[in-house]
Amino acid sequence: MKLKYITILTILFIQMIGCKGLPEYLFLPQSLKIDLTPFLFRVYSPAELATLSNADYNLNESGLITSSKFAKFLSNWKNNRPSGVSGNLVVFQVQTSGGSGRYVFFDGNQTFAYPVSNFQELLTDVRDDGVLAIDGVVPKGKKISDFFSIYGIDPAIDYIVFASDTSSLANLSSATFAYYSLLYWGFPKERLAVLNGSIADLTTAGTLFTTPSYTYANSNRAGNIKNLFRDHTVLQLTIGDLIHAIKGGNTNLEEVDQIPAGGFQIIDGRPNASFTGTASSTASGSKYTNCTTKTNSTLVSNTCLVTYEGRIKSSTNLVPTDLYDGTTFQFKSFNQLQSYLNNTGYSSNKQIFVYGEDATKGSLVWFVVHQILGKPTRLYEGGWKQFGALGLRSPSSGSSPSAISQPASYWRTDIATLSESNTPNADANVPNYQLDVARQFVKNSNKLRTEDKSFLRGTSTSGSSGGGGGAPTGGGGNACGG
């Protein structure tokens, strides 16, 4: 590693002392056709990306912050911002179902705030991992670049806070998933935060000054996530990584991560009814009717039930509702959260794999374990929505087939080695989708991370967009200042 950086510095030094008066096309390393991007990128581990909160949340500068810290930031950002932060404060008020009518005060110069009701559109995508396309996972690089451009964010210097507008589980989990998405794409954890509590409740309590009116303002600038040279994509646990680990490495799957040397623990971040395999526990209501006539190969809208209920083999349950106050939706104390994790039998040397019903719901438990308790953690974004869909069933005539039709499929999950407490859902409640036979025997589920790594390194043009994303044009510029 040291030799690599010495080589880079030597090349740059030679260029600096020898480039005066030389034509632009002789700029090194361009003239030598050396691409330094692979050398500059740093790949982070789950442990490096973890944040250990203070037992007193009021002392936190990032991760989970309280209204007292937040109010201090807003009152005088220039003098009160965290050490090492030089950019703007950008606040997102998360609104999933109506707004509070209260807005944080910002100056439109160094502090900005945006009430946002379409986070699912802004920061999630329907994406194909190579096995089964699912909705609500981290967006493509283009969408992240667009997000920074729309809201005038420079990821190299700015600080972002995600705050629930009103107190609800939907707002809180949307905030934690937005945090996860930006962290995944390389945004430094030191400049990301989730507010503990909602704008509405904190205003009522008198701990946060807000106004009843909102005037839009934008910094009209944006940066490029690629220029951070940070690869955080390890946060995403693929279904291939998961199956490979559960089977102790005895698979023929390709591009899977090594099993952690210290072992791993799988945490199911769903309600207990789902964890114990209660039929139809992940869905309810009239929107789950008429599944036998619906073709929904990509599970875009979660219209029906998964093939079966149950849990991933050897997983332990960390019930989401235990982790926050059911009225204020503020997270419980550090010691309480640590106690809940201890009750799962967690050993401090293990890496944690977290999953929920989907990526957004799973992100809440991920945030607690990784960004409050500081444990090395990865999120299986597909969640039970994907895992529980990959079962085999032999439906009666006229009923929906399952995603898996081949008993020996590499991705069949309703087997004793991969799942337990399994309960089939009714045929009529399972959507009409079935994987091609070729897909059932594909060996790679790492398509998303491969695409994202390529985008970060500039080797893929399919994900480029405005806001600085995409290759520069016009010759690349002259390092000698010409």
Topology:
Elements: H1 2-18, H2 37-40, E1 42-43, H3 46-49, E2 63-65, H4 67-75, H5 77-80, E3 89-94, E4 103-104, E5 111-116, H6 119-123, E6 125-127, E7 134-137, H7 141-150, E8 159-164, H8 169-184, E9 192-198, H9 199-204, E10 210-211, E11 230-231, H10 239-246, E12 264-268, H11 272-275, E13 308-312, E14 316-317, H12 334-342, E15 351-355, H13 359-372, E16 377-379, H14 383-387, E17 419-424, H15 437-440, H16 447-456
Parallel strand pairs: 1-11, 2-9, 3-5, 3-8, 8-9, 12-14, 12-15, 15-16
Antiparallel strand pairs: 4-10, 6-7, 13-17
Helix pairs in contact: 8-13
Gist?
The protein is of the alpha/beta class and 482 residues long. It has helices at residues 2-18, 37-40, 46-49, 67-75, 77-80, 119-123, 141-150, 169-184, 199-204, 239-246, 272-275, 334-342, 359-372, 383-387, 437-440, 447-456, and strands at 42-43, 63-65, 89-94, 103-104, 111-116, 125-127, 134-137, 159-164, 192-198, 210-211, 230-231, 264-268, 308-312, 316-317, 351-355, 377-379, 419-424. Helix content is 27%, strand content 14%.
CATH architecture annotation name of the largest domain: 3-Layer(aba) Sandwich
So what's the overall shape? globular
**Tally of DSSP helical segments:** 16
For the record, what is the CATH homologous superfamily label of the largest domain? Rhodanese-like domain
What is the count of β-strands? 17
Helix content: 25-40%
Sketch the major β-sheet.
5 strands, parallel
Helix and strand composition category: alpha/beta
**Backbone CA Rg:** 24 Å
CATH class of the largest domain: Alpha Beta
CATH topology of the largest domain: Oxidized Rhodanese, domain 1
| End-to-end Cα distance | 32 Å
Average pLDDT, rounded to a whole number, is 86
Pick out the low-confidence regions.
Answer: 11-32, 284-289, 295-302, 461-482
The total domain count is 2
Strand content: 5-15%
Domain Rhodanese: 309-396
Region (Disordered): 449-482
Pfam families: Rhodanese
InterPro entries: Rhodanese-like_dom (IPR001763), Rhodanese-like_dom_sf (IPR036873)
